[in-house]
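Possible regression after last week's pipeline update?

I re-ran a chain I had predicted before the update to compare outputs. Posting the input and the new output here so someone can diff against the archived version. Not blocking, just want to make sure nothing changed silently.
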Amino acid sequence: MSIRFALTIAAFIVFLIGGIAWSASYYHTKYQAEKDRADKAESVTNNVITAVNLFNDIAKATNDAQQQNTAASQTRIVYIKETLKADPCASQLVPSSVTDSLRKHADSLRTGSGSASG
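New output (post-update):
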């Protein structure tokens, strides 16, 4: 075997090892970049899930409070009816002008509370 052939084989092996090393470095860098992108996407997704869960907790608490208010109101209505049952004034009709005025006022309160600006 000649020295020229041995040097050619050695050079080929060195280039082959260098090519493998460069390829490993190149694809490892691409892998790291993709992994970082995936980690950021996962972080964003986790933040969205946390926000949705927080919103659901707030909605549930609001709904529970509303149900408690409704139950308390119904209890209060029964109490008032029982208390006023014997009162002769309670059986008299309220004039329609008064009820219309109260309805208009209640409707204006509902309309005002529905807007975002207050």
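Follow-up from reviewer: compared with the archived run. The chain has a mean pLDDT of 89. Marking as no regression found.
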